[in-house]
Amino acid sequence: LVHELDVFLGFSWRDWSTTLIPGSIFSIGAMRTLSHKPTIFQSYLFLVLWLTPYIYFFNLSNQITGIDEDRIDKPDRPIPSGKVTVAGAKLRWALVLAVFLSIAVYEPTLQPETICWVLTVALLCATPFGNHWFVKNCVAMSTGTWALLGASWKAIAPLTPHSERYILAISLWAGLMTHIQDLRDMKGDAAVGRQTLPLVLGST
């Protein structure tokens, strides 16, 4: 168990600031709408149960398909560092996906966000479209943020018209502004032929 926790941290710690942390913060807004406060802690634990495979599924998908890039930009990650084999990562990927989908079956209100995220990750990691800056950030970051924030609210309380507007606005903003994250990975992105906006603008 300790080993698996260490592996999970190795795969995911860089992305907590864009998943587990903002999802938890956004859920506070949902908590404020509840009249029955004793259920908050239980609901938040359920949210963490959903957020964990949310980020782990993406990390495994991304790092299984991005080994060459990680050898350049992030050699400390579990696969390029040798801590985890590709076969081991694929086994974890299958188990995490099964858990993620099972949670959505258990809680049908989260099915739209769960399906949206699975399709978004597939677009990013299993198709060549994920290598283009528009799809990678403008599309996938927007849909991923929508799934993250929508589930973070709905795990606590029903959506309201105000919360739906907030989620949409933040999702669109994320899709427009997160190109900046690609500045740190330009060397690895160039090596694998990814067309991020910093590389496209830098080559003109």
UniProtKB/TrEMBL annotation:
Residues annotated as transmembrane: 41-58, 91-108, 115-135
GO molecular function: transferase activity, transferring alkyl or aryl (other than methyl) groups
Pfam families cross-referenced by the UniProt entry: UbiA
Alphabetical list of InterPro entries matching this protein: Prenyltransferase_related (IPR050475), UbiA_prenyltransferase (IPR000537), UbiA_sf (IPR044878)
Topology within the bilayer: Multi-pass membrane protein
Keyword Secreted recorded: no
KW Transmembrane helix (keyword) present: yes
Keyword terms of this UniProt record: Membrane, Transmembrane, Transmembrane helix
Signal peptide: none
Subcellular location: Membrane
A GO cellular-component term linked to this record: membrane
Stated name of the protein: UbiA prenyltransferase
